[in-house]
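Bit of a strange request maybe. I'm writing a small parser for structure token strings and I need a real example to test against, not something I typed by hand. Could someone generate the tokens for this chain?
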Amino acid sequence: MTQQSKTQIGYWEVVAIGIGGMVGGGIFAVLGLAVELAHGGTPISFAIAGLVALVTAYSYIKLSVAFPSQGGTVTFLDRAFGSGLFTGSLNILLWLSYIVMLSLYAFAFGSYGATFLPGAWQTAGKHVLISLSIVGITGLNMLNAKVIGEAENWVVGLKLAILLLFVGMGLPGISVAQLTPGTWSPLIHLVTGGMIIFVAYEGFELIANTAQDVEHPESNLPRAYYSAVGFVILLYILVAIVTVGNLPVDKIVAAKDYALAEAARPFLGKAGFSLIAIAALLSTASAINATLYGAARLSYIIAKDGELPAVLEKKIWNEPLTGLLITAVMTLLVANFFDLSSISTMGSAGFLLIFAAVNAANLRLARDTGSQQWIPGLGIGTCIGALVALLWQTATTSPQQLWILGIMLGLAVAIEALFRALTGREIHLSI
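Reply from user aminoacidic:
Good idea to test on real output. This should exercise your parser:
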């Protein structure tokens, strides 16, 4: 057996990477937000968000097969649009979106962990747990990333088993009356409910970073993408059905920071609440670990492309620790100073923009990727339409959050433009 064949990964391993990337901390963190917007139509919201992800998966498939690279999304954007201000800003936006995702996972870790504390300690305890999760896992990555990386497979298997137990035990007792169309929010709220929790689907793009190591990529990558996204759509819809079908909407909203655990109480009792809360702690810790390492690697790749300072390209102990530490510090600030809704909105908006750009990249490179042009065109339309719906909802209910989104986008452009100005590189769009 050659060294190359030893390092190649097969279909099931790629599917596991995709599912593990999606079923991280997202579903535990954002389920309550979706119910708050969509009410009995929450399963529809998850289906709508899933369809946006499924259409975008087509572009990732075509680009991953045509341009396999550890750079994934960064490589696709650079290949299609060149190394200009536009692409550099998008790549930095991707990094910032990963920081937002980390903040979401840390916030969920703190929220679920605080349920085990006495009532008077919960508010302060949540922030202590948020900070400990980030600092602790950053420290573990610095000491021995390989050991905790090997534990990922066990955690992914455990959280899937617990979610499937939740679905299996909860489905027989659901109240269909709580899921009928009469309980649904208006259509625009169903769409925006799906978009504010779109972050729960973004993880399938991690498959792109493994494409160059996949055996028989022409056949395995398309099957793996579609299998992972399809399975997660079905899982999320079933989780939403069980949640809304077993617990009144007002109770879910009251416990939205830890809604999944509260939804287990009617049919699994206090032990079920604790089981789901423990699963959430494991899942969010696992997601923080995977995303923290991935974000640090991403900053390293962007720096190698000359779109971030070279200090992020330097390695310590053969790992990009400078990027790791900067990412961790920024995550600490976002997770502790923004609420769940703001974090989720920022994350969803960031990834919808990135996915629209990836669809545009595939449309531009359609001859090279062998793509049907109407599918990435549809992907651009669905991502932009979803983003507009999300912005409309935000402007209607929490207009102050638009400033946060504006700052996030402005920061991505400003960082890239400032870096180009300081290094004497030409500032051009290259679209």
